[in-house]
Amino acid sequence: MRIIHRRARVVHGRRGTGAAFAGMLASASLILGASCQAPPSSVRSLSATQRAAIADTVRQTMIAACNLSGGNVVSRLMSLYPDTGQVISASVGHITTSRDSLRQNIQTFWTNVGRNMKDPKWEWTAMHVDVLAPDAAVLTATYSIPHLTPAGMPHVIGGAWTAVFQRRGRRWVIVQEHLSDLPQ
């Protein structure tokens, strides 16, 4: 931002409109400067290495939990969420606010859709992690799950997922999320 200072005009011993304008400009620049604050010190104190390590941990947590091979898929997906407390999840036009209702939604999906997929493979098509603080990060990703239908036809489901992670103890868990499906 470039600030231009002008010399105030003196008219009959008083400052003219130029001084008033300069005063307003100085006040505006102080207000503007105050509104452009630096990030909180906790975020500034993270080194690039620390940020990268947190981002990598969040990525690896998602990748491991969304592995559809083997059993216990619902339990593996539920490992993304805290054991206690509120979890806000928005998906297919609905919001859930508890771990129990989220578990029920995941179980219903797996029972009605997931178990009918033959050879499903979760593929991440993009994944972006922004470290907000030493104990908070947000992930936005797109994914697809190619598989075969029960009739043997190729089929793909997928969507976008934004998740707010919080570190609780030694675990990074999702405390709020929004999933949107690709149109069929």
Q: What level of helicity do the residues show?
A: 25-40%
Name the average pLDDT: 83
Instruction: Profile the largest sheet.
Output: 6 strands, mixed
Beta-strand percent range: 25-35%
CATH topology of the largest domain: Nuclear Transport Factor 2, Chain: A
Number of contiguous helices: 5
Q: How would you spell out the order of helices and strands?
A: EEHHHHEEHEEEE
Structure class: alpha+beta
| Widest sheet, order of strands | 4-3-8-7-6-5
| Poorly predicted segments | 1-36
| Overall geometry | globular
Number of structural units classed as domains: 2
C-alpha end-to-end distance:
48 Å
- Please report the total strand number as a whole number: 8
Q: Give the C-level CATH assignment of the largest domain.
A: Alpha Beta
Which architecture name of the largest domain does CATH use? Answer: Roll
Please describe what this structure looks like.
- The chain is an alpha+beta fold and 184 residues long.
- The chain is built from 5 helices and 8 strands; from the N terminus they run ββααααββαββββ.
- It has 2 domains: 37 residues, no CATH class; 141 residues, Nuclear Transport Factor 2, Chain: A (Roll), CATH 3.10.450.
- The protein is 33% helix and 33% strand.
- The chain is globular, with a radius of gyration of 26 Å.
- The N terminus is likely disordered.
Summary of the model, kept short:
The chain is α+β, with helices and mostly antiparallel strands. The protein folds into two domains: 1-37, no CATH class; 41-181, Nuclear Transport Factor 2, Chain: A (Roll), CATH 3.10.450.
